[in-house]
Amino acid sequence: MKIALPEEDVLTYLLQQHHQGLILCQNIHQGLRKNIEPVRIKKYCTWFFKQHIEIHFKIEEQYIFPILGYDHTLVKKALREHRKIKRLIEDTADIIKAVNLLEELIEAHIRFEEKNIFTEIHKSASEEIKHAIRKDANFHTMKRVSEWSDIFWQ
Prior knowledge:
Layout: H1 10-33, H2 38-68, H3 73-90, H4 95-124, H5 127-135
Helix pairs in contact: 1-2, 1-4, 2-3, 2-4, 3-4
């Protein structure tokens, strides 16, 4: 399966997606603070995962992480966190716990990737590698958060 990537620098694109992920965390936080029914928040998280995070993870796992290598300590940690986030999205047993953990884990994961992995990629990856990543894929358009109809955080 080919994953669609933008023409701009792939890391810049992923950073823009990270910003959307931080907005997700802020929206979860607001929903919890307002005592919104956890099921509503979880539905939003699941939608956001399917529309944004899932493709983001695929781009990182297929194009970004191989630059450092799958045996790299930072990459191993990121992959563990990807699996944990996915498990929390799929968790239907304890929705309150899952939603709280998603808020914390996604924010921490984004900060980790930006501070560690993306910094390391900038040091390691030549422009030729970055160009090859862009050349190997098409463009993926993210849906805007505003397309979600239940704006519980406002």
